[in-house]
């Protein structure tokens, strides 16, 4: 697989150099931007495959940059920020970020997030080029056209809500989806604050797709949301 082109948006020179050195040692191609205006210009003119974005920039807040990029592109955006509250993470993820690393972060964390982003690019490419409506992840298979799902070739007996949740997670594999985003997608605005019900449905879904199997498909991000893992 061709190494993706990455845009680093960071105004702290030490952190920017750390990220750049990490990418260089892994043979990634990258550009850097030190403020929001430059970041938007770079994103428009060079069309990067992945963006690594600091939120605390001197001219434009990182949340606004995420929204601007999302207005024309669905490229993976990995946030790296000193803002560490759950609400900060939720705001960034709801704006369209794919992942959120809190400073200080390790090189291993950054590389792991990049691998997840690259897998998302790979899955998106397959989805755009294949004509069939099958999704496969480990022992899990979803037949979008048929409206059914299987684990190890055995059909799952899912409720309509469980199936909708499974499809939503599968179409965003590797991406953290917030409680607010999921409830709006599944039930609409009237359900946006009903996180307790979401947890119940997610628990029953997880039991059905993970019971008696060694593979884990759904990861809980406490206070934030859920992510489907690649198996």
Automatic annotation (TrEMBL):
SUPFAM superfamilies in the record: CheY-like (SSF52172)
DNA-binding region(s) from the entry: 132-230
Ranges for domain OmpR/PhoB-type: 132-230
PROSITE patterns: OMPR_PHOB, RESPONSE_REGULATORY
Domain (Response regulatory) ranges: 5-118
Keyword presence, Disulfide bond: no
A Pfam family the protein falls into: Response_reg
Modified residues (4-aspartylphosphate): 54
InterPro entries for the chain: CheY-like_superfamily, OmpR/PhoB-type_DNA-bd, Sig_transdc_resp-reg_receiver, WalR-like, WH-like_DNA-bd_sf
Keywords: DNA-binding, Phosphoprotein, Transcription, Transcription regulation, Two-component regulatory system
Keyword Cytoplasm part of the UniProt annotation: no
Protein name: Response regulator transcription factor
Organism in which the protein naturally occurs: Solibacillus palustris
Organism taxonomic ancestry: Bacteria, Bacillati, Bacillota, Bacilli, Bacillales
